[in-house]
Amino acid sequence: MANSVLVLGTQWGDEGKGKFVDVLTQQASLVVRFQGGHNAGHTLVIGDEQTVLHLVPSGVLRENVMCVIGNGVVVSPDALFSEMDMLHERGVPVEERLRISGACPLILPYHIALDQAREKAAGEHAIGTTGRGIGPAYEDKVARRAIRVQDLLTLQRFDEKVDLACAYHNATLIGHGMHAVDAGAIKHAAREQARRLAPLIADIPGMIDAHRRAGNRIMFEGAQGTLLDVDHGTYPFVTSSNTVAGAACSGSGCGPGTIDYVLGITKAYTTRVGAGPFPTELFDDVGAVLGERGNEFGATTGRQRRCGWFDAVAVRRASMLNGVTGLCLTKLDVMDTLDTLKICTAYELDGQRIDHPPIGADDYERCVPIYESMPGWQSKTEGATQLSGLPKAAQDYIARLQELTEVPVHLVSTGRERNENVIIEWPYGDLPGQERAP
Ligand code: IMP
């Protein structure tokens, strides 16, 4: 059986990945997180119950699925345990379903303090991070001073590493006028963390390989979005990991041939949380309508998301960077009331028309969107399960996005529920619970 699917975001995050990982995991046996940390927020809605996951892969609500956190993820033990406790309260046997790589760098209290101190010191130049220590934890990894999940298994050595790390980072914290972090408290907490984490540590590359050899479907779950990629995004207004498809291999420990299909989750308009370039951002009533109808508040920080028109330049680039096989268009129903829709087809930079994003934030900030307009459909698309059941103007909008991004739209999400989808083309068998579009 050809198989494995990578689900990632093609914009600035919050495209609705969680729902599709959850929908598609009914066909999978293994779900893999490979980058980011608990800066992510993946919202799943099942019946009346909403679950927001930050670190645990979105397949955890399914009985048939193992979930793994690969080495590319930075792990806060506190965040992980509070999520596991929340899942326990809902009756999910999370210990049975979750495994974690010993090579994951830990996010420790000094990372959080540093993240917040730096953002404060940056004033108006702040990145608008989630303040969760993600950037400083990745810095430690690359600087080869990270303390990793595996280190919790030898506590004496762990303690030595904590002393060294605190001595190093406290100098910076004190320089920022912050309190030093208490090494003793970190060591004390580590005893309980080790007890809970040790049974979850596993050979993740070995697990992926075993599932691949058995012909089982593996689902790779991206976090954030392509334009937040540390190399390819709107640097420095990015997250600190590679969010592109290639990172799925290095962040979990498998070869590129493991992935058969890359699903690019794409919102029917655009949003962004935090600072940084956003050419199609709207500051008018339309932006307010998108924010309100789309409930555009960050799942992790509760911050209001900036909203704007669909940016085909950005999504075309993201599709190229990721080798996207098919797009999944989400939140189409949020645009149901608009009378005219605009799509950004190119940018103007210094009087020149460009059809690809410039490198880095400085030039990106100066890009002016070039729009084309289409009539809105002004009727309800929510809950539709057939392409022919969508208004003609909505079908035309989808077709135009497909043309401009140069990637086929394979799935359309028409609501929050698992079964509110139009399946235009899905190569891996029926998605249970839904009719296929004719
Ligand atoms: P960090 O990842 O906390 O360092 O934040 C860096 C940038 O990425 C900020 O603009 C955040 O708002 C953004 N960011 C991080 N995680 C997410 C996410 O899951 N969705 C959307 N934006 C995110």
Largest sheet: 10 strands, mixed
Radius of gyration: 22 Å
Lateral strand order in the biggest sheet: 7-6-5-2-8-1-9-13-17-18
CATH superfamily of the domain at 109-199: Adenylosuccinate Synthetase, subunit A, domain 2
What is the helix fraction of residues, given as a range?
Answer: 25-40%
Q: Round the mean pLDDT to the nearest integer and report it.
A: 94
Q: Which ligands, by name, code or SMILES, are bound? A: inosinic acid
CATH architecture annotation of the domain at 109-199: Orthogonal Bundle
Low-confidence stretches: none
The DSSP helix count reads 13
Beta strands, count: 18
Could you give the distance between the termini?
24 Å
Assigned CATH class of the domain at 109-199? Mainly Alpha
Strand coverage percent: 15-25%
What fold name goes in the CATH topology slot of the domain at 109-199?
Answer: Adenylosuccinate Synthetase, subunit A, domain 2
The global form is: globular
Structural class: alpha/beta
What would you say about this model in short?
The chain is of the alpha/beta class.
Task: Explain what this protein looks like in three dimensions.
- The chain is globular, with a radius of gyration of 22 Å.
- The strands form four sheets. Strands 7-6-5-2-8-1-9-13-17-18 form a ten-stranded mixed beta sheet, sandwiched between helices. Strands 12, 14, 15 and 16 form a four-stranded mixed beta sheet that branches.
- It has helices at 17-24, 77-89, 94-97, 109-122, 134-142, 155-175, 183-197, 204-213, 247-250, 285-293, 312-322, 361-365, 392-405; strands at residues 5-9, 30-33, 42-46, 49-53, 66-69, 98-101, 201-202, 218-221, 261-267, 270-272, 306-308, 310-311, 326-330, 340-349, 352-354, 368-375, 409-413, 421-423.
- With 438 residues, the chain is α/β, with parallel strands linked by helices.
- A hairpin with a 7-residue loop joins strand 17 (409-413) and strand 18 (421-423).
- The chain has a domain at 109-199: Orthogonal Bundle (Adenylosuccinate Synthetase, subunit A, domain 2), CATH 1.10.300.10.
- Inosinic acid binds next to helix 5.
